[in-house]
Amino acid sequence: MAVMTYIDAINSALREEMARDDHVFIIGEDVGKMGGAFKATKGLQEEFGVERVIDSPLAEGVIISSSIGAAMEGMRPVAEIQFADFITPAMDAITQQAAKLRYRSAGTQTCPLTVRVCYGGGVSGGLYHSQTNTSWFIHTPGLIVVAPSTPHDAKGLLKSAIRDDNPVMFFEHKKLYRSVKEEVPEGDYTLPLLKASIARPGKEVTAVSYGYTLQLTLQAAEKIKQQFGAEVEVIDLRTLAPLDKDTVLESVARTSRAVIIHEDNRTLGVGAEIAALIAEEAFDCLDAPIIRVTAPDIPAIPFAPPLEEFYMPSTEKIVTALEQVLRY
């Protein structure tokens, strides 16, 4: 075991998969000589060469389209989108081509493509370097959408994503990159892509989250325990699409209460889908309304610190929501 940051875990997974399989290559803006904007690919071009760690033009559509072609020919590309805000030039390639390739070919073709996407606010990045747009992709069947919350999960899930024969959108919250450290196996291991985890067991209320807000939810759960003695069960979704419905429903059946937390916009976010799922399949278990803690429905995340603070979910906002459902 080694103590790793989130960004170290990403780098370790990429290095191990490239060493394991010659078909794996990396492509993206500044991923080679610079080692990536956040140094996720640091040292990989020196180790594996310019033909396997490719500095692309500033053209996200080209990055993804060329990766899809390579995937169809048996390669396993790992494409990096430097900021989630700039993914729109690649939307056609992702949603119309990669997501539909297996279906349109009646299963005769696969698209083993991993798209690493840096997302999230709370770092004063302003409106074009802070978006959380995971919901754009969870609406598209054919894509697996993953958003790890810890270094351990980031490494294990990224290795699984690279080995999977389906296109995987792999979202990495930039605020997690160097703020969270934990012990991570140095050797080879993978984690199942379609399975949520119980990050903290509890019996009074279920809190469902992913990514950076999972860390805030764990902090809120500890405060609730200290203040009220109530145990919050925290579910880390890990994969947003397809959802692990069973883990969520089984938890709500035990606790009878649910709070859903995410940084994406409120309307049609993953929280809305989970709330509908609980209402449809676990309504008889509920002792309180389902509450969501999300970003507001505004065009973009503000740059001004007080406005960004208002926009972002926080430990305090989550504590307030948990208190509200516990009062029922």
How would you sum up this structure, described in words?
The protein is α/β, with parallel strands linked by helices and 328 residues long. The protein has two domains: 2-184, Thiamin diphosphate (ThDP)-binding fold, Pyr/PP domains (Rossmann fold, 3-Layer(aba) Sandwich), CATH 3.40.50; 197-326, 3-Layer(aba) Sandwich (Rossmann fold), CATH 3.40.50. Helix content is 37%, strand content 20%. It contains twelve helices and 14 strands. The strands form three sheets. The chain has a seven-stranded mixed β-sheet with strand order 3-2-4-5-7-6-12, sandwiched between helices. A five-stranded mixed β-sheet has the order 9-11-10-13-14, with helices on both faces. A two-stranded antiparallel sheet has the order 1-8. Helix 8 (211-228) crosses helix 12. The chain is globular and about 60 Å long. The mean pLDDT is 97.
Brief sketch in words of this structure:
The protein is an alpha/beta fold. The protein has helices at residues 6-20, 44-48, 60-72, 91-98, 101-104, 135-138, 151-163, 211-228, 245-255, 270-281, 305-311, 315-326; strands at residues 2-5, 24-28, 53-55, 76-81, 114-119, 144-146, 168-173, 181-184, 197-200, 205-209, 232-236, 239-241, 258-265, 291-295. It contains 12 helices and 14 strands.
Main sheet attributes: strand count, strand direction, barrel closure? 7 strands, mixed
**Low-confidence parts lasting 5 or more residues at pLDDT below 50?**
none
CATH architectural type of the largest domain: 3-Layer(aba) Sandwich
Distance from N terminus to C terminus (CA atoms, Å) equals 44 Å
Gross morphology: globular
